[in-house]
Amino acid sequence: xxxxxxxxxxxxxxxxxxxxxxAAGINTTKYVFTNAxxxxxxxxxxxxxxxxxxxxxQPFSTYFQYDAGLVYSQYNSVGDVQNIPFSxxxxxxxxxxxxxxxxxxxYGLKASIKGRASIQKMVNGNQFxxxxxxxxxxxxxxxxxxxxxxxxxxxxxxxxxxxxxxTQFQHLDTIQFGASTLNFVPTxxxxxxxxxxx
Length: 198
Fold this sequence. Notes:
Blueprint: H1 2-14, E1 19-34, E2 44-59, E3 64-74, E4 77-81, E5 84-104, E6 109-129, E7 132-135, E8 145-158, E9 163-173, E10 181-196
């Protein structure tokens, strides 16, 4: 995680005359598994993981803005089958973007809501089952690119001419259909800084 944080900071320091959002938060991820019979077993429960993001933000009209950038997320889950506990720990990196309106509120606050899309790939993952760790790198339900759709809501407060603080709620879903599929449904709460360099 330290390497990802350093990469984000280096990219931000190299930028000029732009607004960058740097945020850290927590994912709560639900794994939704559909078996071969088209059923959704309920033995999997949400797990918590870290989230880091660095994005570039730019207005393209009076009220609408877009952002695009890098994201690192841990999508984890726990569960048990016939009293046998297990857990999943995964690390994903990818691209994240959003578009939507931003409005001014009283007391110097700003609020925005955006439709979001993200493309991510697992870079590390394992399952803990019966006192052993199993590598997920060859599991077809975890490998390959994963496409997420969702939305975010954000509240922002300006500190000075160059820096604002903000908090964000985000909900995404991989939205895969059919039998024998696994969907990731992460909900993210994060806090961050908006840095405008000149």
